[in-house]
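re the bet — no i am not wrong, look at it urself. input seq straight from the record:
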Amino acid sequence: MNEHELLQHIYARAAKSPDNPAVELGPGDDCCVLRFGGERLLITTDQLVEGRHYELSATIDQIARKAVARSISDIAAMGGEPISTLAAACLPPDYLEADELFDKVHKWCEHFGAPLVGGDIVSSDGPNILTITTIGRTSTAGEPILRSGAKPGDALYVTGKLGGSFQSGRHLSFDPRCAESTQLVRTLASDLHAMIDLSDGLGRDGARIAEASAVRLVFEEPALPIHDDVAGWEQAVSDGEDYELLFAVADGAPVPPMCNQTGTLFTRIGRVEPGSGCAITLLDGSVINIAEMGWDHGRTG
């Protein structure tokens, strides 16, 4: 299975679905957007699979936290705020930690402001699978921030630092960038053109903004904020599991240096150009295509 090809098939199929006035945005972004009355609802779902998204040494608390935080991150990437959560689990018949798992899921849903309101449980001999669906709403500005709004001339920024999330264990303890998203929406308003959370890596997720917006993204190697335990730019753009926000803003817009609430840095790392694809300019001046650098959930081995 090739994840990109399957997603393209799903998007094409969804585009042929009958029109429904409640569906403002279907598959293809971090969340779908549904309109009810004068409010837009954001809905996203993520799966956490044992042995693929976390190692067997992870604690129940870490598993629950990551499962919930991944979906909360999607809400933040759309400039929204979480409201509530649904949780579904596929667990072995002899799994003895089910009560603890759902107690921890409940705890983290409350922590992130999206209380657990329902779900489902089934039994299987396969690996543990925890599926989280989060419902949110757009901010006071009313407009979701999509992947498709980047424009030539925009500046590209990222929150925090990149790389090494899985090997370091940071993927189990990251904070969804909700406060950062809220500040950006309120500060930049219409100058905030596009945003995505970096679950699959700067290269692959940057390419998603490029494709959705019909533009070319170009990053600058010296500008990348990289964790100290990361070997270099290749690892930083391809590791995935960072859950930082990549966003495009009008050039010259007043992007603050950091989030007032958390201290998370906002770093300018590149620009949007006419064209297509996603690339990085290295210190020696060479330009490398990085659109395929990142995590593909369809890969095996």
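see?? The helical segments are 3-15, 60-77, 98-111, 165-168, 178-188, 202-213, 233-238. told u. also The longest helix spans residues 60-77. so pay up
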